[in-house]
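Review form for a predicted model. The reviewer records the input and the model, then writes brief findings.
Reviewer: anonymous (R2)
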Amino acid sequence: MLEGFGEMSLEKERNHRSMPKLGINIDHVATLREARKTYMPDPVEAALICEKAGCDSIVCHLREDRRHIKDADVVSLRKAVKTRLNLEMSVAPGIVDFACKIRPDQATLVPEKREEVTTEGGLDVRGNLKKLSLVTARLKARGIGVSFFINPAISQIEASLECGAGIIELHTGEYANAGTAAARKRELDILEKAAKHALSLGLEVNAGHGLHYENVCDVARIKGMNELNIGHSIISRAVFVGISAAVREMLELI
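Model under review:
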C-alpha cells in the first residue's frame, strides 16, 4: 500500500494518467454465505461497498452447479450495480438463456469444469469457433459486451477476433504461480506481447486470475491494459481490514 495516498489524491491520479480499471469479483462473498446456507454475507451489499470504495465494475460467475452465486443474486445485482456488471459464464444453453434475459453489461465467457475449485486455464477459442461465434452473436444482439477469458497465446487472441468478441481477458495464472523471479519475468513478457498484439487488432485488453497485492503492479503497468479483474485476494484482505479498505489498497497499487 502506498503511504499517504488519500481518497482525493487517488481520484486526481486516476484522472491524471492512464491506469487500469478495477473489477471486483464477489464470488467469494457468496462462497462464505453458502458455507452456512444462510442469507449472509450478502454479495449485493458487498458489491455496493466495492462501488462506493471506487471500483469500476462488479464481476460474478454464475456456475452451472450454482455453488456460490445464485440466479437471484444476479437479478439483484443487475438492479443494484451502478458501475458495470460483468457476468462470467460458460456457454451452456441454460446459462446463455439466462444472460440474454438479465442482460449484464458484459459477459465473459470462461471454460468451466464441475470438479475445479476455480476457473483454471483459458477458453479454447480456436477449437470452438463455431459454437463461440453463435453464442457471441446472440449475446451481442441483446446489447451485451462479450469478452473471452483466454491464455495469452496469439492463436487464441486472433480466434477471439474471428468470433466477434470485442474484449479479451488474459489469464494471468501462469504469471501468478511462477516460482522464481526469472519465471515471473518470462510470463510477464508473454502477457505484454499478447496485450500488444491484441491492441493492434483493435481488441480491448483485460487481465485476471491469481492477482494479489504483491504481484499486481507489473501487470497494471502493461501498456494498454484496460481492466484488472480481482476477487480472492481482495475478499481475503477484507477479512482483516474491511471491504472498503481492501478495495482502496488495491486501487492505490494499480
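Findings: The first strand starts at residue 21 and ends at 25.
Further findings: Residues 175 and 231 are 16 Å apart (CA to CA).
Recommendation: see findings above.
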